[in-house]
Specification:
By secondary structure, the protein is mainly alpha-helical. Helices cover about 70% and strands about 0% of the residues. The protein has 2 domains: about 50 residues, Arc Repressor Mutant, subunit A, CATH 1.10.10; about 140 residues, Tetracycline Repressor, domain 2. The chain is built from 11 helices and no strands. The N and C termini lie far apart (about 50 Å).
Length: about 210
């Protein structure tokens, strides 16, 4: 890590993450390289290696930021809504993820390889944010459904979080994919991020 103030270090990390995020709007994960990211920052490409050693580390940092933003949204829901019905919570939860399309998009990639290609310290930083998202959803369940058995709350988490990995590919399809489904005769109902998330949450909250 280069010498400098923590503020400068964090600012440069954010610039690298922002550059990656911007490229990801028009390019695939496979197409994006450290060189591509470096060309859109204000410092040399080789300087990126002072902060991130692999492209996967940069994407993991972007995913970490998305988790942190989602946690902030969930905390905002709890602050503004002292009580919610099952339907109301499912609605708020679905709308919180509807805003986090980037989170869902990155999650749909090969998560295992992304983590495997990151240094332990970077992976630990990410896991802190991921763990906080689990804890925050649990706090939501505790606030809105205090009579819900602990085992049911845990089951909600262990079902909903793996489900999140499939939200993006199930709701965002291109014309090639849509045509292939039609030609294959697959009777598939296309849903929005909100619809599929709301339906899942409602099912998990049933008595």
């Amino acid at each position: 890590m280069p010498k400098g103030s923590p503020e400068l270090t964090n600012a440069r990390k954010e610039e690298i993450i922002n550059a990656c995020e911007e490229l990801y709007k028009t390019m695939s994960f496979k197409e994006i390289t450290i060189k591509e990211i470096g060309e859109t920052t204000s410092f040399t490409r080789t300087s990126i290696y002072n902060y991130f050693q692999t492209k996967e580390e940069i994407f993991l940092a972007l995913l970490q930021r998305e988790y942190e933003l989602w946690v902030a949204d969930l905390n905002g829901i709890m602050e503004k809504n002292a009580a919610l019905s099952k339907d109301g919570f499912a609605d708020k939860l679905a709308r919180s993820l509807e805003k986090r399309k980037q989170l869902l998009k990155i999650m749909s990639m090969n998560h295992y390889d992304m983590e495997s290609s990151s240094r332990p310290e970077r992976l630990a930083e990410f896991k802190v944010a991921y763990g906080e998202s689990l804890n925050t959803v649990m706090r939501c369940l505790e606030q809105y459904f205090p009579d819900m058995p602990v085992s049911d709350k845990q089951q909600f988490l262990y079902t909903f979080f793996p489900f999140m990995f499939g939200i993006y590919p199930y709701t965002v399809v291109n014309e090639k994919q849509r045509t292939a489904m039609e030609e294959a005769g697959v009777n598939y109902v296309f849903m929005t991020i909100y619809e599929i998330t709301y339906n899942c949450a409602k099912c998990l909250l049933k008595d």
